């Protein structure tokens, strides 16, 4: 990909508009809410949501927040300029538009606006009923404010809540819940505590299965009580997973090719089917419904002595 345009949204957030290096249009349609692997100039791979209209074949847009203590991912992309080249992977989706909803509520916190922006484009193109709430510490720290205020498809459907303290946010969410039903769906992305608050406020209204979250960071897990277990592939190969190793690392050491990316249970690359046994889920990418038959091999473990899995 070639960087066609760089826009400094805030002092710490910039958007990169990417086009194909050969200037041809994109031939792969991606679903709203999708993300891609981006390999920057330092060779560090990170995942970023696509926040442009999904039906636009000319380019894709990602927003990059410079994170404190960056290990070369976000900081390197803040040095990229127009004309530079980047490598991106194929779009993957963990946060899609529900097909049977009577209305949709999108709730973004900070940089969490990125996947929800593409959902908003998609919902507008379908002429579906939706509202987008955007919380940020201040206007100076909020991305896409001008677009959300002035673009025709958004301006009457967006509530900007800038500088609203975390303790005051439940009141805003309660007001937004008026009119939602058990057929409505909620989509949220932002800091973990923010999403927990959104879920607590709105799951009782629409049902826990109708609250969809997108995580950017892995959850912290206590591993002190981890024990060894056995993993068997549907091909019959058997592997012993020690207490201090992941399923993914053991399979790779055994010569098994497993697709991976973040290795933190966020991106969903290594999610595979569980045929027998009970997983100990530690990911931040699968819904409760998904967890009934799938697991993320990079972080999750087993509650039983043996798992049988089928690689995706």
Written description of the protein model:
- The protein is α/β, with parallel strands linked by helices and about 300 residues long.
- The model has no long low-confidence stretch (mean pLDDT about 90).
- The relative contact order is 0.11.
- A five-stranded parallel beta sheet has the order 10-9-8-11-12, with helices on both faces. Strands 14-13-19-15-17 form a five-stranded mixed beta sheet, with helices on one face. Strands 3, 4, 6 and 7 form a four-stranded antiparallel beta sheet that branches.
- It has three domains: about 1-95, Translation factors (Elongation Factor Tu (Ef-tu), domain 3), CATH 2.40.30; about 105-215, Rossmann fold (3-Layer(aba) Sandwich), CATH 3.40.50.80; about 230-310, Ubiquitin-like (UB roll), CATH 3.10.20.
- The chain has seven helices and 19 strands.
- The two termini are about 25 Å apart.
Short account of what is shown:
The chain has helices at residues 74-77, 113-126, 145-150, 152-155, 169-177, 192-206, 247-253; strands spanning 2-8, 13-19, 34-39, 45-49, 60-65, 87-88, 92-93, 104-109, 130-136, 158-162, 185-189, 211-214, 229-233, 238-241, 271-276, 279-280, 294-296, 301-302, 306-310. The chain is an alpha/beta fold.
């Amino acid at each position: 990909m070639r960087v066609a345009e760089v826009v400094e949204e805030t002092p710490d957030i910039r958007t990169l508009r990417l086009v194909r290096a050969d200037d041809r249009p994109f031939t792969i349609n991606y679903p709203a809410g999708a993300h891609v692997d981006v390999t920057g100039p330092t060779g560090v791979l990170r995942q970023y949501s696509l926040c442009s209209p999904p039906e636009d074949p000319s380019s894709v847009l990602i927003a990059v927040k410079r994170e404190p203590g960056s290990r070369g991912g976000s900081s390197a992309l803040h040095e990229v300029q127009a004309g530079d080249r980047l490598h991106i992977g194929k779009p993957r989706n963990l946060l899609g538009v529900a097909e049977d909803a009577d209305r949709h509520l999108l709730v973004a916190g900070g940089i969490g606006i990125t996947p929800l922006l593409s959902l908003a484009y998609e919902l507008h193109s379908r002429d579906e009923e939706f509202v987008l709430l955007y919380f940020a510490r201040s206007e100076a720290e909020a991305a896409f404010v001008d677009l959300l205020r002035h673009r025709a498809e958004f301006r009457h459907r967006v509530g900007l809540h800038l500088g609203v303290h975390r303790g005051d946010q439940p009141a805003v969410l309660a007001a937004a819940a008026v009119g939602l039903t058990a057929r409505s769906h909620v989509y949220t992305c932002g800091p973990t505590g923010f999403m927990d608050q959104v879920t607590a406020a709105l799951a009782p209204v629409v049902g826990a299965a109708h609250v969809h979250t997108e995580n950017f960071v892995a959850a912290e897990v206590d591993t002190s009580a981890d024990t060894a277990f056995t993993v068997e592939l549907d091909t019959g190969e058997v592997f012993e997973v020690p207490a201090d190793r992941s399923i993914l690392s053991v399979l790779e050491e055994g010569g098994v090719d497993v697709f991976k990316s973040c290795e933190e249970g966020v991106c969903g690359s290594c999610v595979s089917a569980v045929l027998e046994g009970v997983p100990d889920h530690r990911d931040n990418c699968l819904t409760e419904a998904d967890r009934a038959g799938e697991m993320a091999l990079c972080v999750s473990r087993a509650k039983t002595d043996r798992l049988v899995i089928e690689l995706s």
